[in-house]
Amino acid sequence: MTTGQLAGKRVIVTGAASGIGRAIAALFEAEDAVVARFDRDADGLEAAGAKGAAFTVDQTDPHAVYEGVEQAVRGLGGLDALINAAGIADDNPTETISLERWNKVLAVNLTGPFLLCQAALPHLRKSTVPSIVNIASGSGILPSGAGTAYAASKAGVLMLTKSLAAEWGPDIRVNAICPGTVDTNMLNGLFEKDDAFYERIRKAYALQRMGKAEEIAQAALFLASEKASFITGISLAVDGGRTYH
Ligand SMILES: NC(=O)c1ccc[n+]([C@@H]2O[C@H](COP(=O)([O-])OP(=O)(O)OC[C@H]3O[C@@H](n4cnc5c(N)ncnc54)[C@H](O)[C@@H]3O)[C@@H](O)[C@H]2O)c1
After folding, report:
1. Ligand 1 nearest atom to the CA of residue 185, by list position
2. Atom nearest to 213 CA in ligand 1
3. Which CATH number does the domain housing residue 234 bear?
């Protein structure tokens, strides 16, 4: 059941072509927000069947990010919230990861959200209820022993979040969500979803299962809504009890 919690809110959601970003954009629209969807995947944006505007933006390209944000904000008539959900996974061992790949993971997962925050800032400053929600990862709190570039990029997102909460407070609330394993396209190519995979999940997670994109979207809704009006700089673990941080 939806409750119009975001009535009239103007929102940019990145990574909106798939998985968690897609679920956030859909839930926010159901809660009566007006959403501009960003992603590098034009086909995925189209398939998401968006009501609002969609922008094909590769967030490693600063020019595209700034142009996209300016255009989106013109269309929305302002900006109240930015949700940074785009990201890429990586499980290369540190011993063999190329510098090019390391730089790419950092560029998408950490520098991308920074660019979006910077581009959004002048517009968020004009809002009466501005907030940012960054989708980090449980790997940024408690690494699993694989994917150090990814874990480092997500730990960076957590500190980006805390530091911006301090730098841009009291005007703008900035929070992060740390999802546990969520069943999205991101898992393809990373894991075989075999018995051993589900057994590892059962052992590592108190709730003994993966999360759903919609469960992460509910946390984003809370943090972006006025129900979270006294919350800033936090990392909210939505991870079925993997990290207990
Ligand atoms: N799925 C999980 O288990 C999990 C766990 C913890 C954190 N996360 C984080 O949640 C976020 C969403 O992941 P997901 O599971 O929905 O994955 P996903 O692969 O389903 O979606 C990620 C989206 O980001 C987009 N994207 C990738 N690189 C981009 C770029 N350079 N510019 C613009 N868009 C780009 C992709 O096109 C895709 O639509 C990511 O930041 C991810 O790191 C996911």
Report:
1. 20
2. 16
3. 3.40.50.720
pTM above 0.90, yes or no: yes
Tell me the C-alpha distance between 203 and 5, whole Å.
36
Q: How many C-beta atoms lie closer than 10 Å to residue 174's C-beta? A: 26
Give percent of the chain above pLDDT 90.
92
Residue 92 forms part of a structural domain: yes
The pLDDT, as a whole number, for residue 8 is 94
Token pair for 167: 């730098």
Contacting residues for 177 by C-beta, under 8 A, at least 6 apart: 133, 134, 135, 136, 216, 219, 220, 223, 235, 236, 237, 238
| Beta pairing partners, 237 | 178
Q: Is residue 1 part of a domain?
A: no
Domain that holds residue 184: 10-238
Cα–Cα distance for residue pair 245/237, rounded to 1 Å: 8
Give me the numbers of helices (H) and strands (E) for the chain, helices first please. 8, 7
> Is residue 184 in a domain?
yes
Count of domains forming the chain: 1
Q: Does any ligand 1 atom lie closer than 6 A to the CB of residue 111?
A: no
